């Protein structure tokens, strides 16, 4: 059972989450305290030493990521909550921490708690370090990430975005090829990776391939057009993507 702290500045949202936890999660969640601001949350974490924190992203006095950065240690699990699917969600997806969109539903809540049980707390510090939006107010700046957390069957793998050569779709999985030749099987469809890598120099050349434009060795115009990547792979460029690809390629 997780000793759990809720940090939520909206009274209605706090009451709804309290009800859901009591009704559906009483065997796994022991709600020990509720804080209504970031500063109260910092104090409550020090006093109660929770194992799990439900943390609203936009608190009245600070952003959740800023609150976490003020802590000396982060030795608990976090499930972020938010009413807005905005730029902060993109940052969260980079780090693979869990989040729930309000209004929170029973199934989503249970699934998030199940994922927390599988994610060691020791990984959270590195995940939190990737969430630089605590210091960022401009949504465009959130794109400037150096690392991304990839979800695999064995757990999380943290890699440098610049070292990703290409991503290849394999139904509900994605094969990520790194610059050193290593391949990582990611337990997410390629579309989700494409979304979080937007603005990082990646381009979807056709339905099954997302490539890093910085790792293109050569573009061959024959046979319909294809690229040779730094790992030696040849990847076709779809006819309906060629014009946009060439325009982008000219800038690299």
Summarize the structure in words.
With 252 residues, this protein is of the alpha/beta class. 29% of the residues lie in helices and 30% in strands. It folds into two domains: 2-139, 3-Layer(aba) Sandwich (Rossmann fold); 161-249, Beta Barrel (OB fold (Dihydrolipoamide Acetyltransferase, E2P)), CATH 2.40.50.1020. It has helices at residues 11-24, 38-48, 64-69, 87-95, 106-118, 124-129, 190-196, 242-249, and strands spanning 2-7, 29-35, 52-56, 77-82, 98-101, 147-151, 156-160, 164-170, 173-178, 183-186, 202-206, 209-212, 216-220, 226-229, 234-236. The termini are far apart.
Number of helices: 8
Helix share, percent: 25-40%
Distance between the amino and carboxyl termini: 52 Å
- What is the typical, i.e. mean, pLDDT? 86
Query: Major beta sheet, specifics?
Result: 5 strands, parallel
Cα-atom radius of gyration: 21 Å
Which sequence of strands runs across the widest sheet?
Answer: 2-1-3-4-5
Oligomer: single chain
Annotated CATH homologous superfamily of the largest domain: Response regulator
What's the architecture of the largest domain in CATH terms?
3-Layer(aba) Sandwich
CATH topology of the largest domain: Rossmann fold
CATH class of the largest domain: Alpha Beta
| Run of helices and strands | EHEHEHEHEHHEEEEEHEEEEEH
Spans where pLDDT lies below 50 across 5 or more residues: 132-144
Structure summary, number of beta strands: 15
Proportion of beta-strand residues? 25-35%
Basic shape: elongated
- Class by SSE composition: alpha/beta
Q: What's the domain count?
A: 2
């Amino acid at each position: 059972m997780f000793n759990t702290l809720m940090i939520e500045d909206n009274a209605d949202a706090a009451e709804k989450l309290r009800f859901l936890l009591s009704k559906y999660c009483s065997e796994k969640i022991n709600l020990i305290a509720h804080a209504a601001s970031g500063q109260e949350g910092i104090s409550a974490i020090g006093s109660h030493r929770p194992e799990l924190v439900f943390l609203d992203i936009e608190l009245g006095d600070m952003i959740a990521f800023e609150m976490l950065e003020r802590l000396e240690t982060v030795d608990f699990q976090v499930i972020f909550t938010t009413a807005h699917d905005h730029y902060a969600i993109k940052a969260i997806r980079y780090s693979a921490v869990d989040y729930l969109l309000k209004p929170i539903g029973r199934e989503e809540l249970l699934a998030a708690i199940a994922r927390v049980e599988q994610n060691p707390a020791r990984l959270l510090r590195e995940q939190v370090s990737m969430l630089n939006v605590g210091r960022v107010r401009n949504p465009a700046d959130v794109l400037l990430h150096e690392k991304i957390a990839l979800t695999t069957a064995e757990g999380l793998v943290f890699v440098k975005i610049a070292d990703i050569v290409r991503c290849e779709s394999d139904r509900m999985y994605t094969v990520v090829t790194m610059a050193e030749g290593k391949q990582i099987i990611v337990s997410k469809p390629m579309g989700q990776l494409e979304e979080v890598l937007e603005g990082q120099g990646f381009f979807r050349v056709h339905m099954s391939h997302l490539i890093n434009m910085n790792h293109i060795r050569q573009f061959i115009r024959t046979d319909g057009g294809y690229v040779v990547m730094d790992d030696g792979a040849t990847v076709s460029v779809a006819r309906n993507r060629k014009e946009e690809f060439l325009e982008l390629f000219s800038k690299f």
